[in-house]
Amino acid sequence: MFGFGKKAGPTIGLDINSSTISVLQLEKTKTSDIKVSKFASTLTPPEIVREGLLADPEAVGTAVRELLDSAGLVAKGPAPIANIGIPGQSVVIRLMPVPKGMPNDELNDVVRQEAINNLPFPIDEANLDWARVPGTVRTDPDGVEREDILLGAIQRIIVDGYFRMAEIAGIQIGKLEISSLAAVRALANSGQLGEDALSLVVNIRQDATDITLVNKAVPLFSRSVLLGVETIMESMQRSINATAEEAKELLPRIQLLGVPTVEPRLGQAAQVARSVCGDLTAEVGRSLEFYMSQVGMVRVDQVLVCGPGTSIPEIDQFIANRLNLNATVANPLQGIVYDRAQIIDSMRPHHTMLMGLVAEPEALKGKTVGINLNQGERTEGEYEEGEEEEVEEIDTPWFKPALIAGSVIAALVVGAWGFVQFAVIPGKDAELAQLEGEITDGKTKLAAMDKAQAAMPALEQTKTDLSDKLNRGTPTAVLLQTLRDQVPQGLGIVNIALKGSNVSIGGNSSDFSKVSHLAINLSGSNKFSNVEMGSVKRFYNKPELIYFRLNGTLSPDLSKQTLSSKNNQAESAPPAADAANAAPAQTANSAESK
Questions:
Q1: Which own/partner contact pairs does 574-583 have at CB distance under 8 Å and 24+ positions apart?
Q2: 86, 69, 64, 84: which is closest to 12 by C-alpha?
């Protein structure tokens, strides 16, 4: 189940995220219990992991090597075999029905065709794997029995980064498992999914959140949303002007429920966290609604909350109140022997995915699903052993001279081959590997430059518009200065409409979270209040952009000042100016998203 008794190196679980790097190893005791034999965790150096992926594989490899040294996991014999969790948002997951009992070789062809039709990147640049989903056999109206196949695909360039990391760390790559499936496996191993329960697993990670609907131990629906602990902390940093360390310190003290705190700074941080957690809970609800729109009404027996997001007090009750469902914080170490001084109780839910990485699907009491992205196109098949044929030996002493001559020629050929193989080819391979690395780094830098360049026109236009309006010298300049200070990088403001104390702000962005951050920042200022999302749309010809409109009100003092200023201008301005001021505010043209 956990790789015991193997001649190869020890099997370990490895969780790498932007906050921490953690490693865990299990072993059996003399009483056949399972215990944590090795565990260590360290802070991740800044900027080497972004959005759950390795931005600097070599630096991550060095950090992992130091962590393994501190945990005593660097063996003199074979290198440890590491099962690593891959963030769900970087993996393309498809659930596809196929006729029951289809042979694996035929399924390979079906899966490959499905991947060609649906992957957003070329099939030749992808690692694929698939698994049959237990308990999904049903009969179609046409009388054909079908079962579901779970397809997982990831860009090979991402997998290559993990192999470069492993080479520096001195480990072997075992499985590259999807984070959501690993979390489900851990909860199945701990017995918390129940025999006949329909569970909703909400794994709040650092960079995103995995939402998985599970029947017993089989995932029925899985989705990842880009809202996680980092989103909450970044919003807090901007709202209260705090450092990352200060936001991290405030996070466990936040009150999502109950009486607000008397500390103004902590209360503002709690308001921001409450807003982001509300968005996250709404995504969970929408995921459940989407699933029921496909299969009909279902009754969810429990919500299990796990991951680093459980550091927020009362997060389970917050979700329970919003969704009107029973919710609890999961314990993946239930039934496992471990040192409580080494893994404190509050940190147990953080290591849910890590526990699932070291549990084999075949050994669990309940059936579950495993996807290993550490491989190319799968070529499973069943082979039968045949009987050995007896070969008749023929005595040919007359051929001895020819054999001697052939041996000499063979030796010369082998010598020439050895020179090419061990002298010429390694040098060329090294040059090719270096060139491939330079090309990969160049592509990454070019993509970053393109993204920055694409954001520049919007930023320059926003700066020009706000500066123009700010220099008019009316009390409205205070409003525009506040808006200018709160606009996140990469978000463009198209227009601002002010009617009385009501304000409407329109713009565009390539990232929805930046729009949410702008709304939170404006609501937290003393110049705006009740800033909410009015609409979000996409244009058909520019699907990469999100067009939004925020609606809110001005603070009472600023509203009075602005109204007074407009009245004074109306009394003193010439008729032409009055006509200009009376013109309705422009709004951005919108189109239904497709």
A1: none
A2: 84
| Cα→Cα distances 576→194, 570, 573, 581, 583, Å | 74, 11, 8, 9, 11
| Domain 452-581: assigned CATH number | 3.30.1360.100
Q: Tokens in use for 554?
A: 């001005």
The owner of tokens 């490899």 is 61
pTM value surpassing 0.85? no
CA atoms within 13 A on the CB side of 327: 21
Token pair listed for 587: 């709004």
Q: Give the pLDDT confidence of 533-567 residue by residue, as tens digits.
A: 888 887 767 777 888 888 888 877 666 555 555 54
For domain 193-330, give its CATH number from 3.30.420.40, 3.90.226.10, 3.40.120.10, 3.40.50.2300. 3.30.420.40
Distance, in Å, from the CA atom of 443 to the CA atom of 160, rounded to the nearest integer, reads: 14
Are 193-330 and 452-581 the same fold in CATH? Answer: no
Q: Report the distance separating Cα 85 and Cα 162, nearest Å.
A: 11
Q: Who's near 569: CB < 8 A, 6+ residues apart? A: 474, 577, 581
Which of 1.20.950.20, 3.10.490.10, 3.40.50.720, 3.30.420.40 is the CATH number of 1-91+156-189+333-380? 3.30.420.40
Q: pLDDT at position 574, please? A: 44
Distance CA 367, CA 338 (A): 26
Cα separation of 259 and 268, whole Å? Answer: 13
Residues in the chain: 594
Cα gap 230→19, rounded to integer Å: 9
Q: So where are the chain's domains?
A: 1-91+156-189+333-380, 193-330, 452-581
pLDDT in tens, 55-105: 999 999 999 999 999 888 875 678 899 999 999 889 998 888 888 888 988
Give the C-alpha separation, 68 to 79, whole Å. 11
